[in-house]
Amino acid sequence: MQLNNDEIRRYSRHLILPEVGLAGQKKICSTSVVCIGAGGLGSPIAMYLAAAGIGKIGLVDFDTVDFSNLQRQIIHGTPDVGHPKTESAKATIQRINPNVEVVLHNTRISSENAMEILAPYDIVVDGTDNFPTRYLTNDACVLLKKPNVYGSIFRFEGQASVFAPHLNGPCYRCLYPEPPPPGMVPSCAEGGVLGVLPGIIGTIQATEILKLALGLGSSLVGRLLLFSALDMKFRELRLRPDPQCPLCGENPTVTKLIDYEMFCGITPPPAVPASNPDEVSVQEMKKALDNPALGIRVIDVREPDEHQIAHVKGVPLFPLSTLPRQFTELEPNQQIYIHCKSGVRSMRALHFLREQGFKYLKSVKGGIGAWSDEIDHNVPKY
Q1: Rounded to whole angstroms, how far apart are CA atoms 354 and 77?
Q2: Which residues are catalytic, by number?
Q3: pLDDT tens digits, the chain, 382 residues: what are they?
Q4: Where in the chain are all domains bearing CATH 3.40.250.10?
Q5: Which of 234, 264, 289, 316 is 20 to 30 A from 128 (CA-CA)?
């Protein structure tokens, strides 16, 4: 391929690097990358790869832009709220570099379509935020012999690596043979994330992709880079292939894609949601608050900083983190409704209190988010 005069001006700062030069820029421009996720990590990855001149970028995402995304997903803007993330991301990429071919996969990646989606690309980058998709991406990359440029973020910490058994490195399963139990690791929606953190980790991932495209430097194959924003420190762990790995080990037992929701212990929702005997609606919570004579106590198990953002008047705070010390303040034989942000932590609190001998417990389905949607729109959603 040849670079025209406009491209030579655009990439001039690459061209004058002896390690890159004209030949290296042509390699970049002829490389194709597929990004799983167009969110926090996918934003800086896609934007910097487009600016660098990666020839083809595939975007895999089925979600729409939400206001809560804008604090960190910088590829999207306020006017994009409600629009598909892939389309919003494509528009930003084309503003950065109209020479880049952008392919949209506006779908949820699954065992049925992963091989078909990933096969045409040279490099796969994992910008996901859930375990089933991480294992799916890893397994598909190993089977297709493609490098998997991995990154993950949570609160103030992030990590990055390149999983590539075909380059003599380990795969994701070598590092994490088994997923954590469902609900054990909070999502960013539950635990939060510093807005700039995905920019740091995503830029590291983009750097690794460019190095792979150029064949330069020492990649993160065989290394896990750990970053703490609060300490502003990087640490590194050496990784080795696991001979017993069921995917890339000496005697693999995983030879095709599997059901990753089941592997991660996640039960798919029924077509018609069944009522959970341990749950009540926000309407029932309101009825309990409006009628003290019912004798039902309502408690909030979110954290104090969340309570400051939004709360339901008259509902006392019993944070889940301190509940093991505070539960003695509650009456074991009283009917108690427990609410949180979305209904996840309230269910954990329910199971904990039940183990302590509490008999009459209900988790409020949808938490304060449902309360804001269905009862009081003045209560902020976060």
Answers
A1: 45
A2: 188, 340
A3: 899 999 999 999 999 999 999 999 999 999 999 999 999 999 999 999 999 999 999 999 999 999 999 999 999 999 999 999 999 999 999 999 999 999 999 999 999 999 999 999 999 999 999 999 999 999 999 999 999 999 999 999 999 999 999 999 999 999 999 888 876 777 777 778 999 999 999 999 999 999 999 999 999 999 999 999 999 999 999 999 999 999 999 999 999 999 999 898 876 655 555 678 999 999 999 999 999 999 999 999 999 999 999 999 999 999 999 999 999 999 999 999 999 999 999 999 999 999 999 999 999 999 999 999 999 999 999 9
A4: 279-374
A5: 234
**Per the structure block, which two tokens stand in for 217?**
């430097």
Query: Nearest 5°: CA angle at 170, between 167 and 174?
Result: 160
Q: What is the DSSP string of 272-308?
A: SPPPPTTEE-HHHHHHHHH-GGG-EEEEE-S-HHHHH
Place of tokens 């790869």: 49
What's the one-letter identity of residue 129? D
Dihedrals φ, ψ of 116, to 5°? Answer: -65, -40
Confirm if 157 and 166 have CB atoms less than 8 A apart.
Answer: no
Could you say which DSSP state residue 272 is in? S
51: Cβ contacts below 8 Å, ≥ 6 apart: 96, 97
Start-end ranges of CATH 3.40.50.720 in the chain?
31-263
Amino acid identity, residue 102? V
Determine if the pTM surpasses 0.90. no
Q: What separation in angstroms does the CA of 310 have from each of 232, 279, 301, 326?
A: 31, 22, 13, 22
Fold of 279-374: Oxidized Rhodanese; domain 1 (3.40.250)
Task: State how far the Cα of 54 lies from the Cα of 361, in Å rounded to an integer.
Answer: 55
Which is nearest to 49 in space by CA: 136, 124, 161?
124
Name, in order, each residue with C-beta under 8 angstroms of 139's C-beta and a sequence gap of 6 or more: 173, 247, 254, 257, 258
Classify residue 64 as exposed, middle or buried by CB count within 10 Å of its CB (0-12, 13-18, 19+): middle
Rounded Cα gap, residues 212 and 209, in angstroms: 5
